[in-house]
Amino acid sequence: MSSHQSPIKATAHDAILSKLSAYQLGYYDDPFLPYMATNASGLTSSTSSNGRPIRVFERRDSPQVNSVPSRSSSGNRTNNIHIPPSPPIATSPRLSNQFEVESFRPYINSERRMSSPHIPPRQQDIIHPHPFSNPVMPKRLCSTKRQLHPAPHIQSQMAQKSQAGEMHQPVIRRGTHARVCVMDYAITTFLSLCKDANEVQVVILGSGRDTSYLRSQCNLLHDKTQQEGKCNRIKGNVRWYEVDHPSMIQEKHDLLLSCDLFDFNYQKVMNGIKDESYIISPKNIRTTSKKDEENVAMQGDDSHDTGFALEPYHLIGYDLRNAFDLLLKNMRENHSFSLETPTLFVMECVQMYLPDADSRRMLETITAQCHHGFMAIFDPIIQHDQFGQVMAQNLTKAKIADKSMSLLNTRTLKEQVDKLKSCGFDHVTGCDFYSAYEMLLTMEDRRRANQAEMLDEVEEWMLIMRHYCFLVASCKKNSDEKNSDSIEEAYCSVIQNNPFGFVASKCLQSE
């Protein structure tokens, strides 16, 4: 991996560690995160061989425990790969990864402000469906019996949460949760709008250790289109693609091989001389370990839980700084990709690492070649204030950004919207991420976040959120087709009762 890619890979690891922390505290359900966070080593945090998250400047060797055998290409279990124990202690995702936030504010350990008396949580207080006890409960005082010293099992929980608190702050986990919810809604809204299509495609660019595919097969994506608990789409008609640097794809493939929840066959495809890609044929997916006697497997061919065959999955190694048309050509030739099929491209903090010229060529290629192209983007907008200047200085110092990067060339929401419009997208809608939180997250999303932990630094969190943005865009190649633009318009609509829940006064649309 080049010197340019190393810090980018580290920030990707910080992202998965952040998500793991949010998951552990009960923000949302993702049983695949402990596997995907194995041996992650970010700029500010890491998981050691025994799964314990540690600050980078505190990193030290740990004894190897809780190992899970991996599989060779033949499918047999072989060498040991270490998986974080249950529950693994860690940090929160990519919204503002821990490095980016620490680059412009002092690190605050809010857990150290906990009052000393604690009591065990009452069973009726733990109401969210999460395997770990509510982290807020041990902070409460009993009105009739006060304990000066917590019970042993509470002491253990407090020690674990203190370690997690030292890794990521509530502002990071709260932003991470919002980011996961909104990007999930970008995917599930697209799938719902395309429910009458014979097939659709989802392409996650710069995917890192993303778990969207795995969660989608288990009905764990946040989905506002669900009706009476049932997903409002035809399942089994989606092809999923993840594209990232070849070293990241190899890493992701190895992690999937070690994942006890996912059984699959795979075919290796060579893209050129060195780049490896994989065609994954899923056999079954579980949400709990095979060791769990109550586990219900979701079978690839006969699933009584989902009622559909597990959807195909492709891991594609490619450097996004290279010509995007070559990537699409490879996907068509080796991975059953179709330019005529409605396709959603997802990018989370990806453009910021690309030269602006390369980013624009990529977007222009999508609008020129894809007949029904959709885009969902989460990106920083550093703007022109002091907050953004400090953020840019620290990212530049870490050799993540320079003057050619999109991060420094599209500083505002308007510049992001104009960029998409100039690259050929017919419809573009964007908002800062605090507005996205207010508009798009449901009451249940907020309730679960509030129940997971308290947020004291509200003003700081709002400031961070306003320096990120969420954008959706769509384009159509054959505009003369009858009703060809109905789905494209609906995806970016801000009219009343639109699929996302956009509010016109809080959004910016292309002219």
Automatic annotation (TrEMBL):
The keyword Cytoplasm does not apply. Residues 42-51, 63-81 have a biased composition (Polar residues). InterPro entries: LCMT1, Ppm1/Ppm2/Tcmp, SAM-dependent_MTases_sf. It catalyses: [phosphatase 2A protein]-C-terminal L-leucine + S-adenosyl-L-methionine = [phosphatase 2A protein]-C-terminal L-leucine methyl ester + S-adenosyl-L-homocysteine. Signal peptide: none annotated. GO terms for biological process: methylation. Its EC number is 2.1.1.233. GO terms for molecular function: protein C-terminal leucine carboxyl O-methyltransferase activity. It comes from the Eukaryota. Pfam families: LCM. The keyword S-adenosyl-L-methionine applies. Residues 42-93 are annotated as: Disordered. Keywords: Methyltransferase, S-adenosyl-L-methionine, Transferase. Belongs to the methyltransferase superfamily. LCMT family. This is [phosphatase 2A protein]-leucine-carboxy methyltransferase.
